[in-house]
């Protein structure tokens, strides 16, 4: 890592648990900056006069730690240290046995991994409930400006939605050679966290599935619609396998599933949810496709991941035959959002605003677009420029 730049929103959360008897778990997709966070915490400790001799940092992607293969190796390497950091811990066999023992010894433990296999009862079982997890997302737009030392402009915003927000891009020129880097990351995620881990044999099919997700990631679709797409590609696979492969893709945090809530029947749909990429740059690199014709959906994905980076929980609402793009909740707050490219026609304005008028409460409602000159509200609904919204969330 060439540069370390503070990500205060994460550090301020984690520092509340330093020296507390709880295991700190840092997670999400590869290359979103989990190692940055661990190294920033180490710097924070050193600045608090913690002796560096009390700290060990193990990164399982570094060849010098190849000798640590199982929980016994991990214990022998870490037992003499007070502060223990293990990056990509899922690469160590039965790691949880070691971590539990170290926790009993009152060590201060920080671990990271890049898949969601254990984000359920298994994680609670492995760590006996003594953990707290922190989701690390790609750079939101304000962080992107800070990292790259850029002033906000239309040109820089378009670079953000083209190349995405992976932190390492700060060490590269913002040009199309970035796509090679992003493709390499996607290949690593697919090979290590999906194909190898889940023993996927039909790689050709899986690549076609990723192509479909990349082109339709913001649409509501079902396994049947994917199956029909694949049949046109002369690939036949049953819907159960398709759903299984989509789940593997979610497990690697490559895409995020957003549930749909039927406001009329007060229930969450079990099928036909929406999916968004964790990093829009990886999506664009997968299919070599960044087109102005996709701009509305790209903006939607960017708004989604920026909201998630600020810890908003998000759902899609359906009200009769109308859809609310994002219903966002955090703590005791709530807001409703529609995303459009430009409000350039009466039809677009009516569609985006009309959906929000169907919601009968007093929480904020926004229509977000690329329009530079925002006109006044409509029936209590605010119109906002997307950049102003992202910076001001």
TrEMBL record:
It comes from the Bacteria. Residues 192-340 form the DUF4143 domain. Residues 25-145 form the AAA domain. This is ATPase. The lineage of its organism: Bacteria, environmental samples.
